[in-house]
Write a structure and sequence with these properties.
The chain is α/β, with parallel strands linked by helices. Helices cover 25% and strands 20% of the residues.
């Protein structure tokens, strides 16, 4: 199901992408060098599995000394520990690492500028993370049609590969909300199977089982050490459903008292939980 195209401009260096439409350059998905040399937040069109894939990049703010603000200060963190120099040629890699933030269900109007992924991206960016927010198939300038999580998983796996090539050694975090959490759970499982797991995974409001509209979700249960957050009063995915998902592996679930599916009035707490998990 295609949705009306939306445009997201690029603010000055650093910060979360928003504002009036500007021309969006098209870059091949394997052009890691082009991604590494980005200097401004904003949208990029990458060559995805189903055509163009729009990705909003949110860059950490530059410090007066030329590094980035947040995430432990100037310098860099690599997989396996803190410290270390920035990757050669990497113009945007934040001190904390690179985070991919995935948005809610496109069939219900979800997109990269939705309030939940937007707020999480802002918090991560302020903490020194370089954030990539892809628009799933058929959303914004992303081509293709909704594929119930199958094609979307392949798209994000390809994006993970590109970002790791662009910023070798940098920590890679996966963050998702609702449908985006379902896709990120699949991505995390696939990366772990390949021997190159994500450094941290955070999943909020993840669907499991049948939901309104007849859609059914079966996210993998082997997402080790992932932060799983759910609202006590989630009207889209009942709390019991996520407990049913967690029970076979005895996976801990953080329950936010009184929260609905969109964490209305509880978004600052959700952001704090995600940021704390990614500090690890």
């Amino acid at each position: 199901m295609a949705h009306p195209r939306s445009a997201f401009g690029a603010p000055p260096r650093g910060g979360v992408a928003s504002g009036p439409a500007k021309p969006v350059p098209r870059r091949p998905l394997d052009a890691a060098k082009a991604i590494a040399d980005l200097r401004d937040s904003g949208a990029q069109l990458l060559d995805g599995r189903a055509g163009a894939m729009e990705v909003l990049f949110d860059l950490p703010k530059a410090s007066p000394t030329g590094g980035v603000v947040g995430g432990g200060g100037v310098g860099g963190a690599v997989d396996g520990g803190a410290g270390g120099d920035a990757a050669a040629g990497s113009g945007v890699a934040g001190a904390a690492g690179i985070a991919i933030v995935a948005h809610p269900q496109p069939l219900l109007g979800g997109h990269a500028m939705h309030k939940v992924p937007h707020l999480l991206a802002r918090g991560l960016c302020d903490a020194g993370w370089t954030v990539a927010r892809p628009n799933f198939r058929g959303v914004g300038r992303s081509e293709g049609t909704h594929d119930a999580g199958e094609g979307e998983t392949e798209d994000l796996l390809a994006l993970c590969t590109t970002l790791r090539e662009a910023f070798p050694g940098r920590r890679l975090a996966l963050v998702g909300f609702s449908f985006g959490a379902y896709v990120q759970a699949r991505v995390a499982s696939r990366l772990a199977e390949s021997g190159a797991p994500a450094w941290r995974v955070a999943l909020a409001g993840m669907p499991f089982g049948e939901v309104d509209g007849g859609r059914r979700y079966d996210p993998p249960q082997d997402v080790a050490d992932a932060l799983v957050v759910h609202g006590e009063n989630d009207e889209r995915v009942p709390l019991q459903a996520i407990f049913d998902w967690a029970r076979p592996k005895v996976h801990p679930v953080v329950v936010v008292p009184g929260a609905d599916h969109f964490f209305t009035g509880k978004l600052p707490l959700l952001r704090a939980l995600v940021l704390s998990h990614l500090k690890g």
